[in-house]
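Morning!

This is the sequence you dropped in the shared folder:
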Amino acid sequence: MMADAFGQLNKSPFFHYICRIITIQSGNMTQIERIEQMESILNRLREAMDKANMAMDQLRALGPQAIELDAYYGSPEWFEDLKADEKGLLPDGLKRGVLSEDGIYDVLNEYREFNL
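The structure's back. Tokens below.
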């Protein structure tokens, strides 16, 4: 199984690009320096992956609220709220990004792209 995964990775243009960079960067390094550099890369990558996984967990947890927002967008209530805003009936300090067609549409589309 591991051999198959490495075989697939080995065919990737990205893999070959990274190998070239590592070869260029490590050409003048001692073995210890190379190991330290690779350890640093591993640690930064692990940290970034941990953050990405936490963010995905947060997005999954927001699923029911995303469905609620999607149902609100374009509903009679949304149009009622939009008309009230256009007539100046809402308080000045009230945040109203949810009444922006592009803002709500873009966020919902981005959320859908994650296929949660």
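Headline: The radius of gyration is 24 Å.

More detail when I'm at my desk.
O.
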